[in-house]
Amino acid sequence: MSKAGTHILVAEDNEDDVFFMRRAMKAAAPDFVVSFVNDGQSALEFLRATGPYQDRVGLPLPAIVFLDLKLPYFHGMDVLAEIRRDPHLRAVPVVILTSSSEDHDRMRAESLGVQGYLVKPPTRAMLIAVLNTLIDFPRADSAML
Amino acid sequence: MEAARLLARGQRALADGEAHAQTRVLNKLTHFFHSSIRGRLTLLVAALTVPAVLLVASMMVQAYRNEQQSTSAHLAMTARALAFLVDRQLGESEALLQGLATSQELREGNFAGFDARARAATLDEDRWIVLLDAEGQVLVNTRLARDEPLPKTVFDGEPLAAAQQGRTFISNVEVGAQSRLLRLYVAYPILENGRLKYVLRIVMAPTTFSQSLEMVTIARRNIAAVIDRAGTLAARSRDGQKFVGKKATPDLLAALNERSEGVRESRTLEGIPVLMSYYRSPTSGWTGIIAAPREDLYRSVQRLLWLGLGLSAVLILVATFIVMWIGRAVVHSVESLVADTESVAHGGTLSGGANLLAETAFVSRAMARTVSQLAEQQQANAALNHALEKELEQQKRAEEASRTLAGIVELSTDGIISKDLDGRITSWNQGAERIFGFRADEIIGQPITRLLQPTRPNEEPEILDRIQRGERIEHYETVRVRKDGSLVDLSLTVSRVSDRDGRIVGVSTIARDISKRKMAEQQQQALFELVASVNRAEALHEIYNLALDAICRSQSADRAAVLVTDGQGVMRFTASRGLSESYRHAVEGHSPWDREATNFRSLTISDVSAASLEAPILAAIEAEGIAALAFIPLMDKKRLLGKFVVYYNRPHAFELHELRPAETIASQVAFAIERQKGAEALEALVDERTASLRQAIGQMQEFSYSVSHDLRSPVRAMRGYADALIEDYGDQIDAEGRELLARIRRNGERMDRLIQDLLTYSRISQRQLVLEPVSLARLIPEIVQQYPEMQPDQADIEIESLDVVIAHEPSLAQVVSNLLANAIKFVSPGRRPSIRIWSERRENRVRVWFEDKGIGIKPEHQSRLFAMFERINPDKQYEGTGIGLAIVRKAVERMNGTVGVVSDGVTGSAFWIELQAATP
Predict the structure, then answer these.
(1) What is the C-alpha to C-alpha distance for residues B57 and B216, in angstroms, rounded to an integer?
(2) Count of CB atoms within 10 A of residue A92's CB?
(3) Nearest residue to B235 (alpha-carbon basis) of B86, B92, B90
(4) Residue B75 in contact with residue B275, Cβ under 8 Å?
(5) β pairing state of A64-68 and A33-37
(6) Are strands A7-11 and B628-636 parallel, antiparallel or unpaired?
(7) Is B484 left (phi over 0), alpha (psi -120 to 50) or beta?
(8) For residue A101, what is the nearest residue in chain B, using CA coordinates?
(9) How far is B721 from chain A (nearest CA, A)?
(10) Which of B308, B306, B305, B273 is nearest to B291 (CA)?
(11) CA distances from B222 to A47, B111, B172, B340, B562 (A)
(12) What's phi and psi for B450, nearest 5 deg?
């Protein structure tokens, strides 16, 4: 499934983290299409192609959703719960963006079903590891080094 | 006539009065000097000092005379010398004239030539030569210019006579005819064939004598003067110009008339008192005078005078002092003797050694002996008197005793009862009547058993028994029956009554009513019990019931109730004894006190029927069968909390202070109420505070957690940007720039670690720990596995036998990894870390040791080791946050364990944690 144009959604409100994500993604998978939303509501609307994202033309469902838990208005946890409830979205792999490996929200997230964690700020190596696990991603280590 | 006689008599009377007064003073003085010691001493001193003073005076007079004599002799000599000096000066002038008289020019009648010769011979300005012929025509005058016309002078009288006889003539001082100046002259006649041809004169001013005056007045304040034959002053050493030409003092002139020389006390022309000496020269008839101011004479005498006066004064003072001193000593001694005498006279004692003088002491001792003899005698007399009095007294007492005894017995407040051996009452006083209610005529002759309680029938026979055995019974407390059947507490003192031969004939009983005392004892007991129970009581209702019982007992009340003010200020029955529901309902809410009052006193109603009460209340009270009642306020700090009410079924005369016990109980209860309220309020407050504190702690923990959490994001972002910079632009930045970036990164990492540690600590502190058995033997190798720096290629870690402990596994894992991280970190540079881990059982606990061979911790630092942010080793190479060991301690303590370290600070350290063992 690994191919250019693979679509990734990142729900993150922190500018810095957006920067690092964008940078790491560029380094890990430069030909992926990465969309960013900065609150929970937008994340759901994007996934459902509703609201401002009605004309999300040509873009399939993201192959992975990177989800920050501390999102404004609509908490990441609620977004996750909504994704898992929605039959159309249920299959989408979700990776939690977390600032601490000991975050106590992790327990709850685990129970709702997540595919992985990424401790911020993400680095290229971390992303490659995650992508490798979740999609058929070529081991880029040799290619990049 | 009559008047004159009266006057004469008055005068006589006056004189008599005066004489009388004088006599009186004289008598007093005579008495003083004759009869007092001080007077005689004064006389003695006077006898000694008066001659001394007289001697001094006579010495002074003598000294003055001596001085006068020596001065007089000196002055006489000087006066004579002065006269001689004058004579010599005049003689010299005569000699000069004799010389000129023989000159050739004069013989030839060549006056011009003579004039020149005369001018040459003249010695000074004040002396000049005049030549006259026999008629008085001036032929030569050396004072005038040569061509001046020469006058004719008057030439007659004595000068002419002397000239005709060929005698040299010395004039008196006179005023010159032409010059109008004072002058005198010496005239020498020149005769030719016995006839007067010329007279040669040497004329001079009186100043001529000034040199002579100076010679005799050197160095003294004396005055020298020269007078001519006529008594005119020719020269004077002081104020010459003023006095020359004037006549001498009449006193001096008179003296000169009598004698040609002498010394006398006189006055000068100015009036200065002087000692004056004069001498008239027999040759010239001129007189020399020397006068010494008497003042000068006195000066030395004056010095003597002062000395004499001073000595006399000192002498008199010393004498006076001695008189006083001796006089006082004597008077004191005498006074002391007098005091002793008076003291003895009034039956006192002698003062003993107060006498100052041996003589009086002697008298005093003699007196002492006399006094002691007197005292002995007196004692003997007194003893005799006493013996006599005693005998009299005994007789009198014997008479009175029987009379008094009867009175005492009758009036005593104690009951005094006597009975015969059969137990019949034989005497009965008023006290007994008061106690028992029987009159004497009612009871005398009756058996004593009338007074006994039926429940104690054996008491009286027993008492009688004991008395017959010879015992005396005192303060025997018992109960007897009154006439009305009520009981009375008594204290009995029983003794035997014997006849003259000592045989027992009856028994006498003194009965004291001790019901009041018994009552007080009962009240006190009730109080003690109440206080003890109140302190033990836990709830207020318990206290009210205890208090009611105590009040009923102490006040001997039939019923009682406690009412407490409720929230609306209405008093409600809270507990009661023997009151009906309807009564309580009827009177509730009524208060005998004004609600606004600040001072509440107990109130009593002795007889309800006599009291003015509201009709409904009265009805309720009477329906309840209450005859008397009392209200006792329950007060706390002047606030009325409620009241106690005691009820009596019969009218009750309240005595003063009778309600004291109830008041004391009331104050105890009021205190207990307040205490209870305070305790309840306190408990509520504590609960409230605890809840709010818990909430605050929770909020704090939440806050610190989220703060720490939020702090991490920017730190990580900084690190990330630094990394990005190095990665993307590393080749464009020089080495120093890269080093700076590396530092930013390192500091970011450090801060991240610090925050992470804080988070850990905070989590360890607050999270709920579920303690369960944890196998150390499994856990520790697992942890070691996780750290690359603890692998065998980098460190020696030796794990020995390990137990199972009761712990919270995640927390214990945190503890172990922190301790291992420290053991790895704190080694000397270049050394390979070496750690040994084992555990040991200590009764029901397990101590786990982590021993390293690192740099160790000095004992003085060990106490601070487990505190927050304490970094013992400041060395850069052992970088840390200072939180690691604080986390260890916190975690271990939360698992009910302890932590510690053993280290000598050189050869490494051994940290231990002690936890509950999983197996007993």
Answers:
(1) 34
(2) 17
(3) B86
(4) yes
(5) unpaired
(6) unpaired
(7) alpha
(8) B756
(9) 8
(10) B273
(11) 157, 47, 25, 76, 130
(12) -60, -30
Subunit contact A14:B712, Cβ cutoff 8 A: no
Contacts of B817 in chain A (CB under 8 A): none
Residues 246-305 of chain B with CB under 8 A from chain A are: none
Q: Residues of chain A whose pLDDT is less than 50?
A: 1, 139-145
HEC letters along A1-22: CCCCCCEEEEECCCHHHHHHHH
Q: What is the 3-state secondary structure (H, E, C) of B687-705?
A: HHHHHHHHHHHHHHHHHHH
CB count in 10 Å sphere of residue B607:
13
Using CB atoms, which residue from B709, B712, B720 is nearest to A20? B720
Beta carbons of B720 and A100 less than 8 Å apart: no
Does residue B395 sit at the A interface (CB-CB below 8 Å)? no
| Residue B591, Ramachandran bin (φ over 0: left; ψ between -120 and 50: alpha; else beta) | beta
Report d(CA B853, CA B868) in Å as an integer: 25
A-proximal residues of B, 758-787, CB under 8 Å: 759, 763
Mean pLDDT for B294-316 is 80
Residue B367 and residue B348 in contact, taking contact as beta carbons nearer than 8 Å: no
Residue B773: which pLDDT band, with cuts at 50, 70 and 90? very high
Average pLDDT in the B238-261 region?
85
How many Cα atoms occupy the beta-carbon half-sphere of B667 within 13 Å?
Answer: 11
**pLDDT, tens digit, for every residue of B21-42?**
778 888 887 877 777 777 777 7
Mutation target vs A (from B707, B712, B713, B811; most A CBs, 10 A cutoff): B713
Q: How far apart are the first and last CA of chain A?
A: 23
d(CA B253, CA B232): 10
SS3 B867: coil
Q: Which two tokens stand for residue B705?
A: 């957690």
Beta strands B772-775; B804-807: pairing state: antiparallel
Mean pLDDT of chain B: 83
Q: Residue A37 belongs to what H/E stretch? A: strand A33-37
> Are residues B835 and B795 in contact, defined by beta-carbon separation less than 8 angstroms?
yes
Asked if B719 has any chain A CB less than 8 Å from its own CB, the reply is yes
What's CA A65's distance to the chain center, in Å? 3
- Contacts of B362-368 with C-beta under 8 Å, sequence gap 24+, read B363/B337, B364/B336, B364/B337, B364/B340, B367/B337, B367/B340, B367/B341
How much is the ipTM here?
A: 0.77
Rounded Cα distance, B447 and A29, in Å: 134
Distances (CA, A) of B145 to B115, B135, B320: 10, 22, 87
Which residues of chain A neighbour B717 with C-beta distances below 8 Å?
Answer: 14, 16-17, 20, 121
Euclidean distance between the first and the last CA atom of chain B, given in angstroms as a whole number: 160
**Amino acid (1-letter code) at residue B764:** I
The pLDDT score that the predictor gives to residue A145 is 34
pLDDT category, B2, cuts 50, 70, 90?
low
Angstrom distance (rounded) from CA B630 to CA B639: 19
- Please indicate whether, in this complex, the C-beta atoms of A100 and B724 are within 8 angstroms of each other: no
- CB-nearest to A14 from B709, B713, B756 is B713
Joined together, the tokens standing for residue A5 give: 């144009």
Backbone dihedral region of B299: left (phi > 0), alpha (psi from -120 to 50 degrees) or beta?
alpha
Q: Which residue has the tokens 């008085």?
A: B136
Q: How many CB pairs under 8 A join A and B?
A: 30
B445 in Cβ contact with B531 (< 8 Å):
no
Rg (CA), chain A: 14
Decide which of B227 and B704 is more confident: B227
